[in-house]
Structures are given as C-alpha cells and as structure tokens.
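Curious: explain these tokens?
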Amino acid sequence: MENNLTTMSYLHEPAVLHSLHQRFTISNNIYTYCGIVLVAINPYCDVHLYGNEMIWAYKGQQIGQLDPHIYAISEDAYSEMTTLGRNLSIIVSGESGAGKTVSAKYAMRYFATVAGNEQEPAIERRILSTNPIMEA
C-alpha cells in the first residue's frame, strides 16, 4: 500500500477514501501523505505511536525515509528552523473531534524533546503550556 496519495494512478475521492480505509483497517496506519500534506485518521483509541523511542527514530530523518507520522512533519519543520533559521508554521486542520488538539500536542512534544537538554529540563513543560494560547 502506498503511503503517498499522489502516487495513485487515479486521484479521485472514492480512490482516496479506499486507500485511507485500506491503510487504516489492514495496516493500522493512521497517517498517509498527500504530497507535503499529512492526512491523519483519528482512530478514537489509544495507539502506541508517540513514545520517546519514536521521537528519536524520526530525529534527523527526511520526510519519506520513514512511514508518514506527525513526527516526520515536526522534524522537517524543526530541521528548517534550526539549520536555515526560518520561521515556520504547522497548520493542523479538521472537523470538530478530528484530533487537532492531540496532533498539535504531539508536535509540540516532539519539539520539546529534541530541543530540550539536561540543563533545561523544564523546556517541555514550557512548550506544552503554550497549547491553550494556540487553541484560542
């Protein structure tokens, strides 16, 4: 199963929905790329994709080297910010209940983990505390 919808022969709504359904039901993949966009399906249950070992697996990897994930998008943004000094935004969009808040928290946790160090252990708490501001 392809992990990027742009590689499909026929890119139309039924084919996209079928591909997303197949990735989710058969492979338990909640993430799929559509070009530079990350499509996420809210599984409405706990999935074990967000531990520190997963964060470090995506650290330093380019998009496409590993399976689609919010950490891949986060790493791409973090890399651009740190190496090129560019300001970036990650837009998390979706309907009510789609998991936007959770996705934003995982992205912020990624930044906090890879940017944090032993001299500044409170950085994760400081970054994650910005969530109420971002939700407003």
